[in-house]
Amino acid sequence: MNRQQEYQTDLEVILEFLEEHYRQESRRKALWNTSDLSVMSTSEDVDISREKLPAGEHSNIVLEKEKSQLQPPAPAAQQVMGSLAKANGSDSYKDSGMNCNSNAVDQSAVLHNAPDGQVLNALNGPERPLTLNTTPEKCAESLPSITPAEKGKKLRLFHFMFEMLEDPGMAHCVSWVPASAGVFRFSARHKERVAELWGQRKGNRMPMTYQKMSRALRNYARSGEIIKVKKKLTYQFSLATLSTLQSQHGVKKAACGSK
DNA sequence: GGAGGTGGGAAATATC
DNA sequence: AGATATTTCCCACCTC
């Protein structure tokens, strides 16, 4: 890969990040306007997707809006660019053993500096405290166990997915589709990273891949814990599963805060 | 036509 | 030993 291609890749990542950021933020605002999760529509009918616009047009609109949102563009935007470029740069974050979670510190710093204190991966919106140590590993290390997995039972994939979704540092890998309860989407670029982390967490001998992980996610359709949304890379927690996870996470968060 | 995502059957494996 | 929850492999189909 030559330098120009590397820059191009960096720019693509940045563009994807900004688009996702804008989508999430605009949905979050819409959500706060309605302030009622129970009446929210599903991802199918509220997703302001790029499919509905010609790609170029969408990007331009998004970038224009994003530019105006990021005024002044300097510190936050530059840090976003820097972090993403670093994350993307020649797979360094992957090859060096530096994973998305290691990146979480950088990204959290970015989030702290983001306009309006915007939070990318927090279903609970702005009331969720953002800490620099929210990676699952760090949290698991420092907290009394509260999830079934952590109580001694086996860690289950949907718990892990929820952890990832609640971790702002993982927002560029997997994130909530904000205006839809329990709907989440993998990043096309970083989906494999989530799978890798899942494999590492389970201590699998073979490396986990997105394909294998998605097979496991599809298995949840039988038990109804997670269903596949008819949209690329998109899944949805059942309401029951979501409320259980949220209440468990609430306890954990309280424990985190009291430390 | 190829790549990537999806859907699902089936057997293997790990853990409780 | 049996149940459960993946994991792994594989194949077919679909969409872009």
From TrEMBL:
Keywords, in A-Z order: DNA-binding, Nucleus, Transcription, Transcription regulation
Residue ranges of domain ETS in the record: 155-238
A biological process term (GO) from this entry: cell differentiation
Keyword Nucleus on entry: yes
Subcellular compartments: Nucleus
UniProt entry tagged with the keyword Disulfide bond: no
GO CC entries: nucleus
Principal subcellular localization: nucleus
Subunit architecture: Binds DNA as a monomer.
Designated name of the protein: Transcription factor Spi-C
Organism expressing this protein natively: Carassius auratus
